[in-house]
Amino acid sequence: MLDVHRHEVLTPQRRWRRLFTSPWVTVLVRLGVGGLFVLAGFSKLILPHAEVVALVQQYTVIPPALVPLIAACLPWLEVISGTALLIGLYTTPAALLIAAQLLGFSLLMLVILLRGVVIEDCGCFGNLGWHETPLQVLIRDLVMLALLWPVLRRQRDVWSFDAWSQMASP
Amino acid sequence: MKRFEGDVQLVLYPFVLNSRSEVATQAALCAGEQGKFWDFHRMLYRRQAQWNHLANPLDQLLEFATGIELDTAALKSCVQSGRMLKIIKADQDYGSSLQVHSTPTLFVNNQRIVGAQSEVELVRTIRQELTRARRTSS
Amino acid sequence: MAKKPKTREGTVSRRQQRREAEQKQASWRRQRQRMLLGGLVLVLVVGVGIAVRTIQQRNIPVRLQGAVDNHYTKGAAGAAVVVKEFSDYG
Prior knowledge:
Chain A is mainly alpha-helical and 170 residues long. Chain A has helices at 12-20, 23-45, 49-57, 67-87, 91-115, 134-152, 161-166, and strands at 2-3, 8-9. In chain A, a hairpin with a 4-residue loop joins β1 and β2 (8-9). Chain C has a domain at 7-63. Chain C has two helices and two strands; from the N terminus they run ααββ. Chain C has helices at 6-58, 60-63; strands at 73-75, 81-87. Chain C is rod-shaped, with a radius of gyration of 35 Å.
């Protein structure tokens, strides 16, 4: 297909790449992934700390000494990184932080599945009634990791704090 | 419990999470009317694998009840009347007000313990609370 | 050969420098505003999280005081430590 404005041939590959790196795709991913992380974080914050400890403890592959630390820090990490991505504040570091968490969760689920540990509900969203098995979580997290790629490769920011601060830049 | 006799009181609140355990809880409370609550309570855990998978475990539980010399006709009538449901609902509401979401959940005074923790962990918490209580009273 | 007017060259160069300096200042101002406002949003969200957590847990010690009556117990009444067990047979 010939683009009359740019005078270039738009192959399907180029069309997909242009769509993939469109700033509006970035906005959708930021809102979706960031929003999900904020929800996950808050769903654990409204639970008593001992409940979150019990949720983490069901992952028996995690060393017991680390369980209280993870239970204390994880909800806040999710809320803060999710909010930063949602509002587009230091978007790249926020996306990298979220990608690191997703990678960690994915590895954990993989180990759980390979070891045959039975977990009926991952506890990712506290007691909001959204139950997921480790396999479902693994798939979801890998999809979200893939979705972060256009955010990390974006050419420009729109609808974000970063975009606003770039407006007067030379 | 024997270790802390005189210092610790255990209070049991059945917190029903599904229809099977609702029947079992009603049966246990009805057994209590015949003075056999704790025997029935222990039997339910000992034989959990034999009744837990049944959609309606009442008949199986009545069969087990003969082993602890319960009047099964009275037990059956009590369960079917549903008069224990009010108590069960009240305990569920109380548990919900305390943000109990899963079982077992224990409160050692104000310390919440969720899930099947080790005896060591439980004893440690009880000792901590005993020390705190003695410090407050002295 | 006529000499090039030095004054005009100098003016252009100074004008450009001034413009660049103003743009740099504006950019730095925006960066600072981004950090402040963005930081404020994050602090607000963390504050909401702390508030939600505090409010949820606030009344639990009070609610734990009562409701022993009409329940099966073991051990001494009035003991220093009361263990309330919420458990399910299933």
